[in-house]
Amino acid sequence: MADKTIDGLKNHNVSLWEKHGATATGEDVEKAFDYLDVANKGAKLLLTAWAAGFDPVGLSNDQLTELEQFI
């Protein structure tokens, strides 16, 4: 699990562990916390949508890349 986490954090800021939790990296501890907070809020929104019977489409890779300028 440690090796996969290290590999994942080379290209992403957050690593999710099934049935374990998550870890994040950033320029400082506050930025890493922000990444985890956004991931947590996104997960809550997804679960809420599923509970309401919706299946969200999500964003395309191009849309996500465009949003990176705001992070």
Query: Percent helix among the residues?
Result: 40-55%
Q: What's the domain count? A: 1
Rg over CA atoms, rounded to whole Å, is 14 Å
- Overall structural class, as computed from helix and strand content, comes to mainly alpha
Strand percent estimate: 5-15%
Q: Tally the beta strands.
A: 2
Stretches where pLDDT is under 50 for at least 5 consecutive residues are: none
Order of helices and strands: HEEHH
Shape: globular
Q: On the 0-100 scale, what is the average pLDDT?
A: 92
**What is the CA–CA distance across the termini?**
27 Å
Walk across the major sheet and give the strand order: 1-2
Largest sheet, described in full? 2 strands, antiparallel
Tally of DSSP helical segments: 3
Structure characterization notes:
There is one protein chain. The chain has 71 residues and is mostly helical. The chain has one domain (2-70). It has helices at residues 2-9, 29-51, 61-67, and strands spanning 14-17, 21-24. The protein has a two-stranded antiparallel ribbon. It is globular, with a radius of gyration of 14 Å. The chain starts with a helix and ends with a helix. The model has no long low-confidence stretch (mean pLDDT 92).
Q: Can you summarize this structure?
A:
This protein starts with a helix and ends with a helix. The protein has three helices and two strands. Helix content is 54%, strand content 11%.
